[in-house]
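Please, structure for the following, as tokens.
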Amino acid sequence: MEKKIIEKFIHDFYHAYYTNDRGQFYRMLSNSFRNRITFEAFNQRRQYALIDIGRLKEIETIDITNHEIKVSCKILIHHHIVKYTFTLLNENGNLYIKPDPFMFAK
């Protein structure tokens, strides 16, 4: 998979977050997450309503393996720039974010 496609996906993910497009944000999460948490539950549960993934400052590296894609980014969160690595899954030719506790533990 081309790195430009992966970069665009990360930018689109953050755009959905910035614009509070909960439907698009939810659709970009992995199928295993969406099979466990319905869209209605995603919108109603407090832990998913308080998502704070910061502001994307820079995509640093993209590492592609057979099973997943690791995207290391610099993000601004609570006035601090931190490094965070997203795990992306390529499922049937489509990219999805594999959610982790960082996204929802606020």
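The chain has six helices and four strands. The mean pLDDT is 90.
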